[in-house]
């Protein structure tokens, strides 16, 4: 009896151990994807691209887990060790099936299960849209109908769904905690932007191609373009967050609501990276900051702008700064016209660029815009939702690590120039 | 001896009470009986329908009796964090000199997860189940179970705790006398209570989970000591819709120190949905 009690006490101890953080009670729930005949078509028809997305899941998850659980680790942990593992192992031989992110980021998942679930719900939408657009049994009208169904199903979870109203870039990169991640971890940040480039860019060949062979060739070319971006990090990575209407204009014109959702999704990815990476946000406040940002990305009032302004903003940011277009691209990567991670300011009403609050122009159409005096992030402009940490300062930028040799794509990767069109 | 044989004949039928078999496709969500007795605190996703066509369990008891059990079942994520499950256990018992086969009741259960795990609060769930009389090897009466489940995740492993009690005619947590009369022979292997722990470790890039468990159960028969059991198992995501599992275990104490193995496959789909 005494031994049984001792065993019971030993087992219960981890559940009862006092925690430094206040008790958190979360009840967010998971929901199955929309059942449809097109389920997993993309996986069947475009295996290489589909598996890359499985690898991307790992990259996102290990990033958050590392930032949360190893706050004092040197930047090299992410910039070298994890980056090399991702680009030389995981991306080269990606997982067969979508990963269980909670198993990769268990502590981050406990920190903000609500935000994690928002990402998963949007990633399901991502995947199911590929399925619809890859399904050759559907004609154009059928695809439009199925995309509308997917979006309606996505909106059945208002507690998880990103707003379908465009959000100003102020929400992403002009908050008190903003820029911490891209400054401390430029390579990993660039890798995440390259992920996002492919995730939205891959819609474009699926939409613009007129036949299955064209779609296959277009997808292969877009995937090969992604591998090109890994050649000389971070120089070869996108210098700005890829915006869907710039990278995938045909897709965005046809399915603007989905494009807006994905831009908001990718913006929130960056926001959470910044919150976790920024020491000015105390650990005891990180969950609250994440939930505040998540609420702003879900609502239809915070930092919103019109669709026209969103399109103008994406244009002014410059496709050449986002990795370039996803189809019909030239053999070489475009030359960026701004410094890496530069923050352009915009008129929220029109979307027009008004200047820089971080970084500067290095040529092209941005050359005429003045750089800020100190080229450092400025406190966010006050908008409708007050921020409890206004005035926090981001840490000093870490030195950029030396570029590492480019990873090699899988041996059977196609010619990176395949599918190019004049 | 005859009493033990009777217990052996009905053992697989009673697995539904001892080991209510919740089912999930996701390899990360362990279910009672798939592969271990101790399960985690999570149900299938809302709007998910999971089918287990032929989860198999083979058990060898003292004296060379082999018990084969197959329990076709389906689980439905009917509400947020809530699943209902229906199973039809089928049993084949080979005692060497005689063989018995047939349905062994109908198993129904509901599992509700109270919360998702956070940094300070483990995931907690409650489950209620019933084994209804049906088939030649089913129980004489309906019996119920109540179970509490907790899951705590660490960086490298998860810990699950389960505590379960059974109730019904002739059963009581406080009962000490022999079971007789209304209970019937089919419940001789039923536990008055069951408690245990499992630890699992995930290999996320391989979508593979391995787990070990230890649990104790109190038989209803007077004179039998608390029985200790140990097991190990694995779950693997073979495809987005398919999960495979396998397990093995042994009764460490008690009169019947036999062993058992399990194997199964689960397939999941979503419920039809139409926009309103």
N-to-C CA distance of chain A: 81 Å
Arithmetic mean of pLDDT of chain B: 83
Q: What sequence of helices (H) and strands (E) makes up the elements of chain A?
A: HHHHHHHHHHHHHHHHHHEE
- What is the CATH C-level name of chain B? Mainly Beta
| Tally of separate helices of chain A | 18
Number of strands of chain B: 16
Q: Write down how many β-strands of chain A occur, each being a DSSP E stretch of 2 or more residues.
A: 2
Helical percent range of chain B?
under 10%
Briefly summarize what is shown.
The complex is a heterodimer of chains A (about 425) and B (about 280). By secondary structure, chain A is mostly helical.
Commentary on this structure:
Chain A is mainly alpha-helical. Chain A has one domain. Helices cover 50% and strands 2% of the residues of chain A. Chain A is built from 18 helices and two strands. In chain A, strands 1-2 form a two-stranded antiparallel ribbon. In chain A, α7 runs antiparallel to α8 and α11 (186-201) packs antiparallel against α13. Chain A starts with a helix and ends in a 64-residue tail after the last strand. Residues 374-405 and 412-422 of chain A have low confidence and may be disordered. Chain B is mainly β and 276 residues long. Chain B has one helix and 16 strands. Chain B has a twelve-stranded antiparallel β-barrel. The radius of gyration of chain B is 18 Å and the shape is globular. The chains are: A mainly alpha (422), B mainly beta (276).
């Amino acid at each position: 009896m005494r031994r049984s009690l001792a065993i019971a006490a030993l087992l219960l101890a981890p559940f009862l151990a006092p925690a430094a953080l206040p008790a958190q009670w979360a009840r967010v729930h998971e929901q199955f994807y929309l059942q449809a005949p097109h389920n997993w078509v993309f996986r069947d028809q475009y295996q290489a691209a589909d598996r890359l997305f499985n690898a991307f899941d790992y990259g996102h998850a290990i990033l958050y887990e590392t930032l949360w659980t190893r706050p004092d680790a040197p930047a090299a942990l992410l910039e070298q060790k994890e980056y090399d593992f991702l680009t030389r192992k995981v991306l080269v031989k990606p997982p067969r099936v979508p990963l269980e992110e909670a198993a990769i980021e268990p502590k981050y998942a406990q920190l903000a299960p609500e935000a994690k679930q928002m990402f998963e719900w949007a990633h399901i939408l991502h995947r199911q849209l590929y399925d619809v657009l890859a399904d050759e049994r559907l004609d154009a009208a059928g695809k439009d109908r199925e995309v509308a169904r997917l979006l309606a199903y996505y909106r059945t979870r208002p507690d998880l769904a990103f707003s379908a109203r465009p959000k100003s870039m102020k929400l992403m990169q002009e908050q008190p905690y903003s820029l911490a991640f891209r400054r401390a971890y430029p390579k990993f940040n660039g890798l995440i932007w390259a992920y996002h480039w492919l995730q939205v860019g891959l819609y474009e060949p699926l939409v613009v191609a007129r036949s299955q062979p064209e779609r296959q060739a277009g997808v292969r070319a877009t995937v090969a373009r992604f591998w090109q971006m890994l050649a000389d990090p971070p120089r070869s990575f996108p210098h700005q967050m890829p915006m869907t209407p710039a990278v995938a204009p045909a897709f965005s014109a046809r399915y603007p609501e989905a494009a807006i959702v994905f831009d908001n999704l990718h913006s929130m990815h960056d926001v959470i990276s910044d919150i976790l990476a920024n020491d000015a946000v105390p650990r005891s406040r990180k969950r609250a900051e994440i939930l505040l940002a998540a609420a702003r990305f879900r609502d239809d009032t915070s930092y919103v702008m019109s669709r026209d302004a969103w399109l103008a903003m994406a244009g002014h940011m410059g496709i050449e700064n986002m990795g370039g277009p996803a189809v019909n691209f030239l053999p070489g990567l475009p030359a960026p016209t701004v410094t890496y991670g530069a923050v352009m300011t915009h008129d929220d009403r029109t979307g027009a660029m008004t200047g820089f609050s971080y970084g500067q122009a290095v040529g092209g159409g941005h050359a005429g815009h003045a750089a800020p005096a100190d080229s450092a992030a400025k406190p966010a402009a006050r908008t409708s939702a007050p921020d409890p940490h206004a005035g926090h300062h981001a840490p000093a930028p870490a030195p950029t690590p030396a570029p590492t040799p480019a990873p090699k794509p899988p041996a059977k990767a196609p010619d990176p120039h395949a599918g190019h069109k004049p | 001896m005859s009493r033990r044989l009777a217990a052996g004949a009905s053992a697989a039928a009673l697995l539904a009470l001892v080991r209510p078999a919740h089912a999930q496709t996701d390899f990360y969500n362990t279910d009672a009986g798939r592969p271990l007795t101790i399960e985690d605190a999570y149900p299938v996703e809302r709007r998910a329908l999971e089918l287990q066509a032929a989860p198999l369990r083979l058990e060898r008891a003292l004296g060379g009796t082999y018990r084969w059990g197959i329990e076709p079942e389906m689980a439905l994520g009917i509400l947020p964090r809530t699943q209902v499950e229906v199973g039809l256990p089928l049993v084949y018992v080979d005692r060497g000199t005689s063989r018995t086969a047939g349905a062994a009741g109908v198993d129904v259960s509901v599992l509700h997860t109270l919360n998702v795990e956070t940094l300070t609060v483990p995931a907690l769930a409650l489950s209620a189940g019933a084994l209804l009389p049906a088939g030649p090897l089913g129980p004489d009466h309906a019996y119920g179970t109540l179970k509490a489940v907790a899951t705590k995740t660490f960086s490298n492993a998860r810990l699950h705790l389960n505590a379960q009690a059974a109730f019904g005619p002739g059963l009581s947590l406080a009962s000490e006398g022999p079971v007789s009369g209304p209970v019937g022979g089919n419940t001789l292997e039923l536990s008055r209570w069951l408690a245990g722990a499992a630890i699992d470790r995930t290999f996320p890039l391989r979508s593979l989970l391995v787990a070990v468990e230890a649990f104790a159960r109190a038989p209803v028969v007077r004179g039998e000591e608390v029985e200790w059991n140990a097991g190990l198992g694995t779950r693997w995501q073979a495809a987005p819709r398919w999960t495979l599992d396998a397990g093995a275990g042994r009764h460490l104490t008690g009169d019947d120190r036999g062993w058992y193995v399990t194997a199964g496959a689960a397939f999941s789909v979503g419920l039809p949905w139409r926009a309103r």
